[in-house]
């Protein structure tokens, strides 16, 4: 048998390669597959009756994201320090330390722009200035973010909604908007 009969037509390998590149570009599979460290700062926005007691606050976060290559789902461990001032004329200044674990679903390529969705559980320890008492609560959170990553360094912007349990009706809800660097 002549080996020339087994050759593929010349345009077929090029078309197959182009098809694989297009499939990779539109597939969420390769997104966010590396381990990365995230440092960010932002605003903490109390909502509901919590917003009546406190004003717009600020926070700083440190997060470690751990993923599996070629799989869009990763885990994220996050520590956040919040400083939330009380409303004018009150002594409701509050500091809060949060430890959170999240599942993160990424859409996009590992390099360049991409979106991600996250949700998870957290433990929140807050101290009010007026009482100096420290109280701990469990909570849930969810959010969406965008990032641009090039050559091992990236930037991210994200928003989260947090609901702490066991703190009255809706006294424990807040939103965060963060921006930062990803290494």
Give a nutshell description of this structure.
The protein is mostly beta strands and 183 residues long.
General description of the model:
- The protein has helices spanning 11-26, 49-53; strands at residues 36-46, 57-67, 73-84, 94-108, 112-128, 134-150, 153-164, 173-182.
- The protein is 11% helix and 57% strand.
- It has one domain (32-182): Porin.
- It is elongated, with a radius of gyration of 22 Å.
Strand count, sense and barrel status of the largest sheet are: 8 strands, antiparallel, barrel
**On the 0-100 scale, what is the average pLDDT?**
84
* Count of distinct strands: 8
First and last CA, distance: 56 Å
Beta-strand residue fraction: over 45%
Helix content: 10-25%
What is the succession of H and E elements?
A: HEHEEEEEEE
CATH C-level class: Mainly Beta
Q: Taking strands numbered 1, 2, ... along the chain, how are they ordered across the largest sheet? A: 1-2-3-4-5-6-7-8
In terms of structural class, how would the helical and strand content be classed? mainly beta
At CATH level 3, the topology is Porin
Query: Architecture, CATH level 2?
Result: Beta Barrel
Distinct helical segment count: 2
Poorly predicted residue ranges: 29-33
Compute the gyration radius: what is it? Answer: 22 Å
> How many domains?
1
Shape summary: elongated
SSE inventory with pairings:
Blueprint: H1 11-26, E1 36-46, H2 49-53, E2 57-67, E3 73-84, E4 94-108, E5 112-128, E6 134-150, E7 153-164, E8 173-182
Descriptors:
elongated; eight-stranded antiparallel barrel; 183 residues; 11% helix; Porin
């Amino acid at each position: 048998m002549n080996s020339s009969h087994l050759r593929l037509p010349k345009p077929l390998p090029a078309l197959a390669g182009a098809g694989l590149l297009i499939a990779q570009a539109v597939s969420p599979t390769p997104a966010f597959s590396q381990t990365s460290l995230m440092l960010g700062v932002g605003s903490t926005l109390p909502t509901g009756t919590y917003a009546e007691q406190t004003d717009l606050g600020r926070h700083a976060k440190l997060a470690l994201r751990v993923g599996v290559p070629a799989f869009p789902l990763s885990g994220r461990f996050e520590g956040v320090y919040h400083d939330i001032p009380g409303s004018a004329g009150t002594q409701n200044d509050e500091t809060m330390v949060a430890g959170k674990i999240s599942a993160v679903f990424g859409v996009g390529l590992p390099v360049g722009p991409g979106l991600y969705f996250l949700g998870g559980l957290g433990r929140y320890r807050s101290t009010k200035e007026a009482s100096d008492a420290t109280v701990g609560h469990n909570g849930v959170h969810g959010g969406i973010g965008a990032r641009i990553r090039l050559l091992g360094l990236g930037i991210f912007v994200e928003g989260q909604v947090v609901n702490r349990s066991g703190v009255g009706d809706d006294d424990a809800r807040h939103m965060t908007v963060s921006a930062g660097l990803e290494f």
